[in-house]
Amino acid sequence: MGQKINPLGFRLGITQSHHSVWFAKPNNYSESLQEDQKIRDFIKNYVQKNMGISSGAEGIARIEIQKRIDLIQVIIFMGFPKLLIERTPRGIEELQMNLEKEFHYENRKLNIAITRITKPYRNPNILAEFIAGQLKNRVSFRKAMKKAIELTEQADTKGIQVQISGRLDGKEIARVEWIREGRVPLQTIRAKIDYCSYTVRTIYGVLGIKIWIFIDTEEE
């Protein structure tokens, strides 16, 4: 069996940076880590509720959290922030107030910013949400994979690999199907590769989606 490693963890400090930036004493480390996860879940649930969409189609690429002694800075990278802002003009202020209430931030200031991604379909999380939506609507998995590859080709990527596993098309025996377009050099550490693993619940059961996108070797 081949030994697998997460492509993002493999490239930390070279082409990949941390999504959480803070220091903590060993005793408080696990608490801060759990707090980060709760903040991310809270934001995703809020966006999902206010955009009036089904679970797992928030259009959030990633959420970066920076903590200081008196400030918590949360940056939400979204593919389609207009949808959220049009539906709830005071959405960011409301989200900030709800987060402060939920986590009882009295001594620390919370600051939330939304950053728009110029090419949303260059991000594997947004692409995985697109494929998940197609699979829930009973579109053939091969058709969904090919459509996703077309979208990434328009976003100037050098290569993409999509893998879907589970009871595909409702077959009784689970299997793994994958498709690759262009180059995806997983062993080259300098290659900037974005990756995501995503779970989607369909009427046939749970399917797993994995996406690797090769962006460039030189870009930061």
UniProtKB/TrEMBL annotation:
HAMAP family: Ribosomal_uS3_B (MF_01309_B). This is Small ribosomal subunit protein uS3c. It is found in: Plastid, Chloroplast. It comes from the Eukaryota. Keywords: Chloroplast, Plastid, Ribonucleoprotein, Ribosomal protein, RNA-binding, rRNA-binding. InterPro entries: KH_dom-like_a/b, KH_dom_type_2, KH_sf_prok-type, Ribosomal_S3_C_sf, Ribosomal_uS3, Ribosomal_uS3_bac-typ, Ribosomal_uS3_C, Ribosomal_uS3_CS. The keyword Plastid applies. GO terms for molecular function: rRNA binding; structural constituent of ribosome. Belongs to the universal ribosomal protein uS3 family. PANTHER family: 30S/40S RIBOSOMAL PROTEIN S3, SMALL RIBOSOMAL SUBUNIT PROTEIN US3C. Part of the 30S ribosomal subunit. GO terms for biological process: translation. The lineage of its organism: Eukaryota, Viridiplantae, Streptophyta, Embryophyta, Tracheophyta. The keyword Metal-binding does not apply. One of its GO terms (cellular component) is chloroplast.
